[in-house]
Design a protein that fits this description.
The complex is a heterodimer of chains A (247) and B (311). With 247 residues, chain A is α/β, with parallel strands linked by helices. Helices cover 19% and strands 23% of the residues of chain A. In chain A, α2 links the parallel β3 and β4. The two termini of chain A are 26 Å apart. In chain B, the strands form 2 sheets. Chain B has a 4-stranded mixed sheet. Classes of the chains: A alpha/beta (247), B alpha+beta (311).
Amino acid sequence: MHFGIIVFPGTNCDRDCLHVVRDVLGHTGLLVWHEEDDLSSFDALILPGGFAYGDYLRTGAIARFSPVMASVAEFAALGKPVLGICNGFQILCEAGLLPGVLRRNRHQHFVCDVRANVRVEHNENHFLQLCRNGDVLTLPIRHGEGSYYCDAATLRELESSRQVLLRYCSPSGEVADSFNPNGSVNQIAGVMNREGNVFGLMPHPEAASESLLGSNDGLLIFRSMVEPLLLGRARTRDSGLLNVRDR
Amino acid sequence: MATAEIHVTLKPALLDTQGATVRKALHQLGYGSVRDVRIGKFITLEVDDAQAGPQMQAMLEEMCQKLLANPVIEDFEIAVDEVTSRDISQNPVALIPVAPLVEGALTTPHAVTNAGTPPSLSSSISGAPVGATGAATMPLTPLAQMTSPPYSAAPGASSAPISAPRTPVANTVAGVDPTPASTGANPLTEHSPTALNTVPLGGMTPSEQLRVQAVSTSEAATPDPFSIDAERFDAMGPADKMALQELAWRKYGPWIRDELDNRRAAWILCAGQRVISAGDTIDSFPDDDARARAARESGLVPWVFVRPPSL
């Protein structure tokens, strides 16, 4: 699979994503400057973390108008996979490719936690298909504006359409406000679009894809993306595709 | 050259944690009388209005919808100061306000993700606004004009027009005296309900006369959500009703929140600034009959305010 990793002025997690795609996954990837408009050679896109345009005005507010974003929108409209990580998630929301918005953390602090826990809510999609529902992933979080918000009607729709893919939780998988680092509604850490091809999450899977870094749970997400969609087929731990955690 | 001044504010139903933090800090400094703080953004744009042309107002709105505000969580108000622009007497129609209430509230880029149920026609449900982006566009009036606090002392007195710059909520609680002397603004363009009647129109330039007329027109056109009578409300279009709902939260937000907190309620049913009933769960939300009864007995619009989702 050939990954396009979009780089805006201020993006800083692009190389980590490229490293995972190339050196850990063994697939191919390219860094794509935000002024490019031809994304046809890519099979999947990643909008990585960082501080695009310095988060000026609102995080992601200016990045969403970068020249490349029109092509990203077209790419998404064709049903191809788009992964937004942290700042990438914020940009996808501002661009309207995902519903809702990321607001300033409830306690006004930038939160940095190398071992935050999120629970897998729905795995019948191209991003979490190698996980089981209820699995707890340990992923780092580093953000000042990660509090997901959408209005009551949108929230109802997201929940009933199974678009909420990840929620903050305790190490044992208990979802509650006390384990929510930023005050997001319903403890939401990641959401997917209705069509199932655009996924945004606040934690950083690219920083947890090698056990050397303390957790390789993030690799489950990248692996899920490169495997053919397994919907409808039996998926078990013995199928050979799930041996990605070397714990 | 024209100066556009844009206020971007958090939608009233949203929790403002930054504002809450600042409020606590003010309390620590000894200013215990500050009940609420909400923080927004103030953006000024210098626009070449000759180049922008007659579409300038629409252009400014577009800028706000697309970039300067995020309609999911923010409202915006635009005011254009044309004091230094072309001679208004040549084109006086430029200053007459158009459609004082919400324009294009349902046509934002984020509208597709905020699918909501429209308010029922006979009464209004307020609370976390559903689908309403509440983009309030002000007619072309200069920001120098101050308004009286939204909590008018005289019941039925015309309230602060939506066209005027929004005073911080803190001011209203402290009961700021709205007389011209306290605002420090230009007395000729100064406006308060009383000042309008005494400013000698003959002594003003044509552009100033038009501005005063513009404000009084919009003031008459904008009703107060708590004192508008039910019949007039029923006659309003859905977009205007939604705008009025937004206005209710903006003007009376602290009172609504206090009532919800004091009663530990999930919702309150009000007619005018008076709570008729409250419920501790959303399951006991008042039905059409309850709201119709409230409307009949008071002759006012039965508003239901729902506690915004807690964080």
